[in-house]
Amino acid sequence: MLGRTRRRRGLASPCVMTTPAASARLWMIAPAHVPRLHARPDLKGTTWHYMGTDVQQRRRTAHALGSTPLVGFGNELNRVAHDIRQPFLEWIAEAGACQPDPTVWWGSTLASKSPLQTDLFLLVCYAELIRSWLSETPGTTRRIVVVENPWLAWLLRCHLAGETRIVFWRVGWWPCVRDAAGWLVRLPLATMRVILWAVKSLVVVRWTFRGSTDPLDGRSPRAVLIYTWIHPRSLVRPGHLTDPWTGRLQEILTTQGERVKRLTPLQIPSTLMEPLRALAPQLIVTARYLTVGDLLRGACRWLWLHDLARWSRFQDWNYAALLYQEWLREWGQVQFAQTRLFYLAMRRIARCYGAKVKCLIYPFENQPWEKLLCLAWREQAPQVTLVGYQHSWVPPLLLSYALGAREGKTVPLPDYIVTNSDVNLRTLRAGGYPEEKLVNGGALRHEYLHTAYNDAPPPADPVTLPLARPRRIVFVTLPLHEAHASRLLTDVLEEFQAPLMIAGLTEPVQFLVKLHPSLPLRRFSHRPLRLPPWIALSDQPTPQALAQADLLLYGGPTSTWWEAALSGVPVLKYASDLLDIDAGHGNGLTVRVCTRETLRASLQELLRERAVRRPAPAHLINEFFGKVNEAVWTTLTGVGSTR
Fold this sequence. Notes:
The protein is of the alpha/beta class. 39% of the residues lie in helices and 12% in strands. It has 23 helices and 21 strands. Strand 10 (357-363), helix 16 and strand 11 form a beta-alpha-beta unit. Helix 4 packs across helix 7 (120-135) and helix 9 (174-208) packs antiparallel against helix 12 (292-299).
């Protein structure tokens, strides 16, 4: 009876801290328990923060808290992120030094450090932000902090158990146990999914490309391979493979007499297999080089973190709880096994064709698959020159582009990294990449930006292009990261259920929403979106969409805002309380920033202001997206040589 009474009062359950509520200024709680907390009379007049990425969970929390004001902390979070960026890099580098198998470690998302692939950096930033709040002068306002991740909540409770300014409301170890059990249940399911997917790919690929000739038949000269992602837009021209990321690189090389072939990813949409058949003489299709033995070796190999107790401490806190969560998620997802299968296929391709290839060029982002590609070719064909092409831009908090000091000596890198501008070259150099590997080859993907000047000296004044249209068009680009993209898409759809009207125009503003090619609509919703007539999904290439747009609305991280700003299209950045991965403007470019609350007003103001389009000066375009230097490519690929 006493136990039931205590649980009813919320004082003595295993999930409740007994810190005196009178002195508490922060109330930590999981989203599921918010309705019960809000009923407490001593928490009237509070504000609340949400620490998490789940849009639906956040919406339910807001509904439960009613009129309690939500306070964003994006600026504070980004300040903390920049402060701990380098220590975090060194910490993960130390972890990598403790792992005995490089193919296992470099194939993990933990080793990539990218906030687009793992929430570890975000969760550590949340923890460090709360520590910074506690170091400030105590205020009088009480704040409810809703912590979505149960492992983070448990870690905070363990480290702040004696802190009198915090109450942990129903925070304990049991939610972590449930989450761990869920990921362990997914382990055999994920293994089965990978095996079934791989078997299907083997059957489909071998049937589709049956009877096709060997793309490298032994003729001289030795070939240059270009690794090419396969998307629907890659096959817009029958009988021709379009590569938006490397532009006219193949043309540059073939004009000089080079023999160029394409190397595909392991994963190709099944709907694109048949159109690829006509291009078989040009392609090395990676999935053709998997065997049944590879399926067993790859799908049944899992990540192990060695010596965790030795390196689990960061900034004087033990983050073992979050590291165990990362470990479990690697087990319960298919990405690690698929990357492992890619490595095994690359080894076989390198073994078969290493003597017939002199150079392999691939898009450089320092992702797990890239590191295993480098390892595979180093092991089986060390004489082949590896060239990574940095085709986009390098956001400050996209940590996969940065190296810790110890990591820089061990990470598998290509022989050369060709950047697309001086800006990105300097950023990679500052990020720890060896000077001798870096060279600026220009922006193959963004050559269209230079056509406005036609290779002529820039005019004294920026070119002015009239935008006389009967209505305004807003081009909305969603980033690759699901949490950032979902937050922007949700807010746009909710805010503009009522049309946006601009004074002097009779038609509402038209919104064209472009999804990232690697983030399909089904990742946001299993049901078709109900879009009002003034909002539509667009699959136009970015240059075409920007040519007709009056304004770009974007959420980072994406390089599209650079393209828009340099083209003269006004840019509005949507900022949430998540990590601003691509923070950092300047160098002559100005970008307005809005939040959910100021979205409509900011759009109205910008659409009223701008009646002309002013492309950036040629020298500024060249600074961010350099002119293509053909000599760099012919030199790196050894044009005319048979080495």
